[in-house]
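Next up, sample data:
>
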Amino acid sequence: MAKQIVRVLADATIDLPPEWITKYNIGILPTQIMMHDREKPYRNYIDITAEEFYEKLLKADDVPTTAVPKQGDIYRAYEESLQEYDSLVVLAHSSKISGSYNIAKKVAEMFPRKDITVIDTQTITIMEGLLVYEGAKMALAGATKEEIVARINSLIPHTHGIAILKTLEYLRKGGRISITKQVLGNLAKLKPIIAVEDGLVKNIGKVKGFENGVELLKNAIPKIVAGRKFETMVILHALMPREAAELKEHVLAQENPPKEVEVFLIGPVLGAHMGPYCLGLGWIGTWDKKWFQ
């Protein structure tokens, strides 16, 4: 195997499990999570796990808030990685959602003689995670920076995800979606369907009852599997392991299923905005909003 000369780094919204971060040598730019139980922010992947986050969330009176990685943390991550690798490829979630991309790019400019490429993935959570996963695997295999950047850029337009929420309350309070309390009340029995479109989190539809939302996901899976452009699909959940396992079995039951179908717990950053009890799917391939309406 060729020597690794490039390291892939990403902000901590990628929702890959910690063991994958280690296995694929992914550098993390830690996002901050503010919770009720301490004044100092938690740093995702460093100070708090997803399991610990949800344990605290269920006991909290207030909705957690998040903040972009600190400039100093990004600087240290770059500096440490550049001691061992010739080039860095840094993936940030959509610049339309937060300032992580702009900060990562600004810090990269502090290393004018170093080879650092920062990519706006135009997405978030496991969809960004799939791009990071592909880039990190290529880096471990000895790919050049140019090869990794070209591959990631080719996949970005085909990276999609969908989630069914039991409530919009966390997204509304966190300012990630514009919706009035009156409309929220009207949606009490109608469960929102959330997707990332054009780099923004959008409510693309609604369904009566969470169970019907899960059925909507299942009905779309044959089309998603048939049109995939990547052999890894991920089911994400927040405290819904049974439903996630059932969705995985449904994917695997399709004709010619993906080689990898993983089930991951939604991480603290996304969990702070979406709250507990949601279910989603991330993939790279074809997409049609009508599948979920």
Remarks:
- The domain at 6-157 is CATH 3.40.50.10170 (Rossmann fold).
- The chain has a mean pLDDT of 92.
- The chain has two domains: 6-157, 158-292.
- The chain has eleven helices and 13 strands.
